[in-house]
Design brief:
By secondary structure, the chain is of the alpha+beta class. The protein contains three helices and four strands; from the N terminus they run αββαβαβ. Helix content is about 45%, strand content about 20%. It binds zinc ion.
């Protein structure tokens, strides 16, 4: 019984961790006011200080960000 509980807890935490990674799927640049898919090559070149993590496209648009021309989010 204890083993089943431990397994359930482990699965729960793995799912939660995975969901939080998926949650911020967009990254905005506070300096250029452009936003990208989190896996866009521009994100890697971005200054970490300018990175703004966003969960949805609407969130980025509402915050005044414009989509990147390279990754077209
Ligand atoms: Zn991009």
């Amino acid at each position: 019984m204890k083993k089943i509980f431990a397994t359930v807890v482990t699965i729960f935490f793995l799912t939660a961790a995975f969901a939080s990674v998926l949650a911020s799927s967009y990254v905005g640049n506070a300096k250029t006011k452009k936003f990208h898919y989190a896996d866009c090559s521009m994100v890697g070149k971005m200054n970490p200080a300018n990175k703004v993590y966003m969960n949805t496209r609407d969130e980025a648009i509402n915050a005044g960000y414009v989509p990147c021309k390279r990754c077209n989010p």
